[in-house]
Design a protein that fits this description.
Layout lengths: L24 H10 L9 H9 L13 E4 L6 H12 L9 E5 L2 E9 L4 E5 L7 E8 L15 E4 L2 E2 L5 E3 L8 E2 L2 E2 L2 E3 L11 E4 L2 E7 L5 E5 L2 E5 L5 E5 L14 E4 L2 E5 L3 E5 L2 E7 L1 E5 L11 E5 L3 E4 L5 H9 L3 E4 L3 E4 L3 E3 L5 E12 L6 E3 L6 E8 L5 E7 L14 E9 L7 E7 L5 E9 L15 E5 L5 E8 L6 E3 L4 E9 L7 H4 E2 L2 E2 L4 E3 L6 E10 L8 E2 L3 E2 L6 E10 L5 E2 L18 E6 L1
Parallel strand pairs: 1-2, 2-4, 3-5, 4-6, 5-7, 6-9, 7-10, 8-11, 9-12, 10-13, 11-13, 12-14, 13-15, 14-16, 16-17, 23-24, 24-27, 25-27, 26-28, 27-29, 28-30, 29-31, 30-32, 31-33, 32-34, 33-35, 34-36, 35-37, 36-40, 37-41, 40-43, 41-44, 42-45
Antiparallel strand pairs: 18-21, 19-20, 20-22, 38-39, 44-46
């Protein structure tokens, strides 16, 4: 996003398919032939079929882009600095890295985190891995402007910051999860330049969090020692120590609990063995999940995962899932010429180091069946140059199974169309299944980089929800040619929404929606009877044609069961204007002072 010029500062099944066979010599002969896949016999078809279904091995090493340290590793600071130098400004580069720290104490560390870099502790508890030092994100590479500090993460560490306060100056797609900061947390860059919003979950900050120039922020199921200020939209759910609900001044939206949450799966070491811990679902959660020790959940050994490394193809990934393996995508870029299909309940598909999946030839990158408990986490889907009708689908069209007891979740799942090169997708994410949890996603049609422009990276729709009882916590969706979010399912809920309308609309006609001026950022279909949202903002910056008028940021049916709390629209520097906030309600934005228009409750 360019700078707003006046914005304020279970156990796996046995590998391989099994076929029932009659007892007897013929069955034995076929079995023996299948055990020798290169045999050329009258049973050639059987032999070739066996080649196609050979078991994919589970476990193994984590590949060259995963850097594992322990307290005795020499030159830790030098290695971390080397990776940062490569990644500091590599916004659309191809390198991916994960920095993993075994349990123990590390002294005098300042881990600066650049693009496509994840840092994490390998303990089962954040306090198992302690830095007497910092994990830092700043914006020196961009002249003190943090609005493009995307695609990086910090997880599962305890920090004793050198000067008492750790700096994490990020914008979208930069989660801060399962962290314990024994001090304060500064979310602004050095010099307090612009910053554009981020996400904290399952973290404990003993001191005060200072967002300063952050325009918006969402914090979930955490504990803070204090919170200092807010610009437009600061939203909290289930956060101990959060400021009182006070929107619009200060702009705090505070829910005592998060109605449904499940923390993201994470890699850890059990002795010398890697495992992935999968936390259980929580209801009406408040505070961190690890306050009383290890939270309820399941540990899955690494040998039950296909460890995906660069060069892997979709056919092998799908074969691994079909035979009962989970997926661990190591840092890298993966081109897939067929859809990755996950139809097995409780499958974990976890990426580390911003693992990136690019669909070739217009295929859908990932499809999840209408099954219980699939966990997609830590993945970036980057659209290819041939248009994909969809990039991620959760459930087939018409999905109707009840998953309330064990929902599918998307966590730190990001989508990008353009920026790294031409990309197109009609709709980025379609959720057809019921009860899905969307926990922190940034769905972005690029407004800078390479391969972008009104038709070059055409992407009409960001997120479409058809399933019932879907909950979004931390929904960031930006710059789509038409609707950014459309919601058709019943009883949907969104806690925190951040949006910018497409900057590059060439003129008013290009965004005209029948008799309506522009497409709403967030639209609830007229058929919906129940829906609710909290802490939601949409901003316009029509810098190509500043005369463009957007009728409203939000559109919803006027019904007793459709409710919104704390809505905001903003014109950045007067580049385009909103006439209303939701439907025909709310004052227009005006002038060039970037003054928000707000609606406290709808209807």
């Amino acid at each position: 996003m360019p700078v707003p010029p006046t914005a304020p500062h279970s156990g796996a099944t046995p590998p391989g398919r099994r076929r029932s066979r009659a007892l007897g010599f013929a069955a034995l002969a076929v079995s023996l032939l299948m055990a020798v896949p290169t045999a050329q016999t009258a049973f050639g078809e059987e032999a070739r079929d066996s080649q196609e279904i050979q078991a994919v091995p589970g476990g193994g090493d984590l590949g060259p882009n995963v850097h594992v340290f322990d307290p005795s590793t020499p030159g830790i600071q030098g290695k971390v600095d080397e990776i940062f130098r490569k990644q500091e400004s590599a916004q659309f580069g191809l390198d991916r890295h994960a920095l993993l720290f075994k349990p123990g104490t590390y002294d005098d560390i300042n881990a600066q985190i650049g693009f496509y870099t994840s840092i994490a502790g390998l303990g089962l508890h954040p306090n198992d891995t302690t830095f007497n030092g910092d994990v830092t994100v700043d914006a020196g590479w961009f002249d003190g402007n943090a609005t493009q500090n995307f695609w990086r993460s910090a997880e599962n560490l305890t920090l004793n910051p050198v000067n008492g306060t750790n700096r994490w100056a990020v914008s979208q797609a930069a989660p801060f999860r399962r962290m314990h900061v024994k001090g304060g947390l500064n979310l602004a860059p050095d010099g307090y330049g612009w910053a554009s919003g981020g996400y904290i979950a399952d973290s404990k900050i003993d001191g005060t969090v200072g967002p300063y120039s952050q325009q918006q922020w969402y914090t979930r199921d955490s504990s803070v020692g204090g919170w200092t200020n807010g610009v437009w939209n600061m939203t909290f759910s289930g956060v101990e120590g959060a400021p009182a609900n006070s929107f619009p001044e200060p702009p705090y939206t505070t829910l005592d609990t998060t109605p449904i949450s499940r923390e993201k799966p994470f890699l850890y070491l059990d002795g010398d063995d890697y495992k992935v811990f999968v936390p259980q679902k929580r209801e009406n959660a408040r505070g961190v999940s690890w306050a009383d020790g290890t939270p309820p959940g399941e540990s899955i050994p690494l040998d039950q995962f296909y460890v995906v490394k660069e060069g892997a193809d979709a056919a092998t990934i799908n074969a691994a899932v079909e035979q009962g393996l989970h997926l661990l995508f190591t840092p890298g870029v993966y081109h897939v010429d067929e859809t990755i299909t996950i139809d097995r309940p409780d499958t974990v598909a976890l990426g580390i180091g911003l693992a990136t999946i690019t669909p070739d030839n217009g295929v859908t990158a990932i499809k999840v069946g209408d099954v219980d408990g699939v966990k997609l986490a830590g993945l970036l889907v980057d659209a290819g140059p041939v248009n994909s009708e969809t990039l991620i689908e959760v459930g087939p069209q018409g999905a109707s199974a009840d998953h309330a007891a064990n929902p599918t979740s998307l966590q730190d799942v990001f989508v990008r169309i353009g920026g790294a090169g031409p990309g197109k997708a009609t709709t980025s994410i379609v959720v057809n299944s019921d009860d899905v949890i969307i926990d922190h996603t940034w769905v972005w049609r690029a407004d800078h980089g390479e391969g972008w422009g009104w038709e070059i990276n055409r992407a009409d729709y960001g997120v479409r929800v058809n399933g019932d009882d879907v909950l979004a916590t931390g929904l960031f969706v930006e710059h789509f040619n038409k609707y950014d979010v459309e919601w058709y399912g019943e009883r949907g809920r969104t806690i925190f929404f951040q949006n910018e309308k497409a900057y590059d609309a060439p003129n008013q006609e290009a965004i005209q929606n029948g008799d309506t001026k522009g497409y709403a950022a967030y639209r609830v279909d007229d058929s919906v009877e129940q829906h609710e949202g909290w802490g939601m903002g949409s901003y316009c910056y029509y810098n190509v044609d500043p005369t463009i008028v957007q009728e409203h940021g939000f559109k919803a049916p006027v019904k007793p069961g459709v409710k919104f709390h704390h809505l905001i629209v903003v014109s950045l520097g007067g580049n385009g204007q909103f006439e209303h906030v939701i439907n025909d309600i709310g004052a227009p934005t005006s002038g060039t002072e970037t003054v928000p228009s707000q609606v406290v409750n709808f209807p």
